[in-house]
Design a protein that fits this description.
Rossmann fold
Length: about 350
């Protein structure tokens, strides 16, 4: 979606920047990516003399290589502040500009675990916030990724750094859209699959997001035989392979970013995977209270509220009437198969 928005904005004359931080692990790498992307996209004002030494090194590095490590050392906090201040002042806020930063949370999560990492994370988030706060700026920002930024900042008590952002999630496709996507995927591989079987597949998934549709299609394609008709049994086999393979491991890996809340989050998900009909909040609280002093019920109740909100924000679970259930049967069955059986 982000790249489609970039294409649309470029068609009407906007300057556009796309920065993917998925493989970036250091502050130096982040700075190099930002400078390289901004320079390539032409969002700088004219560069003048008087820029900081660190920024001069960054510009020199961008001229010498398209991407890679840059040797930047901050001997004092003042040096870091001066470099980021120079970067901020170089951005042209008077032209229509669209900046997309992908996997920001993933990068910040890695950075936070390094020496002095949480201080660096706070500094970067506050710097990005300061860019968005400039009066009458024509620069628009989109932060996207596989890990929720709001949960991450909340855990570090940095929620204020993104309180100006509007949060939205890419929800599931409508039934018609999901049907059309699976139909198109079948057509692209000359795979015969009638409407009844497409509906059967979507009913198995229930939460019809594009990724889930694509991975079950990949399994169906491996099973497909031109000489044999696709059947509901074929779809069941493909589904069962998905819940026993590695397609969904990132959902487990992401919980590391929950920090001290990872353990209760896993307890909740494990219990819900064993109870497809869902569990009430009271039942979940009683589960978390196991082995705890009764005097801690208030603390555990607050912890439960926080973890449930995080799991709901990240798409693991949802509230269904009086109970919490897995949002995706596929993810629920994967969880049960991996962590319960």
């Amino acid at each position: 979606m982000a790249k489609r928005l970039i294409a649309e904005k470029m068609c009407v004359g906007w300057k556009c920047v796309y920065i993917d931080l998925e493989e970036v692990t250091t502050e130096e790498g982040f700075l190099h990516m930002v400078v390289a992307a901004f320079a390539k996209s032409g969002v700088w004002k004219q560069i003048t003399t008087g820029i900081s030494k660190g920024l001069a090194v960054l510009f020199e590095g961008v001229e010498k290589m398209s991407i890679g490590p840059v040797d930047i050392k901050f001997n004092r906090n003042e040096e870091r502040e001066e470099l980021y201040k120079n970067l901020k002042e170089l951005i042209d806020h008077e032209q229509d500009t669209f900046i997309v930063i992908d996997e920001l949370t993933l990068f910040l999560g890695i950075l936070s675990k390094a020496s002095g990492g949480q201080e660096k994370v706070a500094f970067i988030l506050n710097w990005l916030r300061s860019l968005r706060q400039i009066s009458r700026t024509k620069v628009r920002w989109l932060f996207c990724g596989s890990v929720g930024l709001r949960n991450f900042t909340s855990n570090l008590n940095l929620g204020y750094t993104i309180n100006d952002l509007t949060e939205f999630s890419l929800d599931e496709l409508t039934r018609e859209e999901a049907h059309g996507l699976l139909q198109q995927l079948c057509a692209s591989e000359q795979m015969s699959m009638d409407g009844v079987l497409i509906d059967y597949t979507l009913n198995k998934l229930l939460w019809n997001i594009p990724y889930f549709i694509q991975i079950i299609f990949a399994e169906l394609l491996e099973l497909y035989d031109d000489e044999k008709a696709m059947t509901a049994e074929s779809i069941d086999i493909a589904y069962n392979k998905l819940v026993s393979e590695n397609y969904l491991t990132t959902w487990s890996e992401r919980l590391v970013e929950y920090g001290e809340l990872e353990i209760p989050a896993r307890q909740i998900l494990k219990s819900l995977s064993s109870n497809p009909a869902g569990l009430s909040r009271e039942t979940l609280l009683n589960m978390l209270m196991t082995g705890q002093e009764s005097s801690r019920v208030g603390d555990m109740d607050y912890l439960l509220s926080k973890v449930l909100r995080m799991l709901e924000n990240d798409g693991y679970i949802m509230k269904k009437e009086a109970v919490r259930v897995f949002r995706s049967p596929l993810l629920r069955d994967y969880w049960f198969n991996t962590f319960v059986q």
